[in-house]
Amino acid sequence: MAVEHPTQSSSLVDVLETVLDKGVVIAGDIRVGIADVELLTIKIRLIVASVDKAKEIGMDWWETDPYLNSKAAEQNNEQLEKENKELQKRIEQLEKNTGRSNNRFV
Q1: Largest CA distance in the chain
Q2: Where is 16: in which H helix or E strand?
Q3: How does the average pLDDT of the chain come out, rounded?
Q4: Is there a contact between 100 and 106 (Cβ–Cβ < 8 Å)?
Q5: pLDDT in tens, 25-57
Q6: ∠ at Cα 21 (15, 27), nearest 5°?
Q7: Among 18, 23, 65, residue whose Cα is nearest residue 45
């Protein structure tokens, strides 16, 4: 019986282009247990795709992660500053209502 060889060979670039265009998902679970008692579960999910393909399927976490995106970090800081000011106003109002001012009773 003769061994058949493909007439076309794919270069690494061709394979990579196809993978990034279509995307590849690798998923797996690792479970460790003793006597039918599960002690540890590790879920592994990996997707390899182009940024355009990832956005197409709804993945855009890198745009909102403050550690990866400076605009997201600025928005996060602005949100924290706003929350801090609101909390300070609430504390002042509570102190006013309870008769306290600067941590002392009036």
Answers
A1: 101
A2: helix 12-22
A3: 81
A4: yes
A5: 778 888 888 888 888 989 888 888 888 888 888
A6: 85
A7: 23
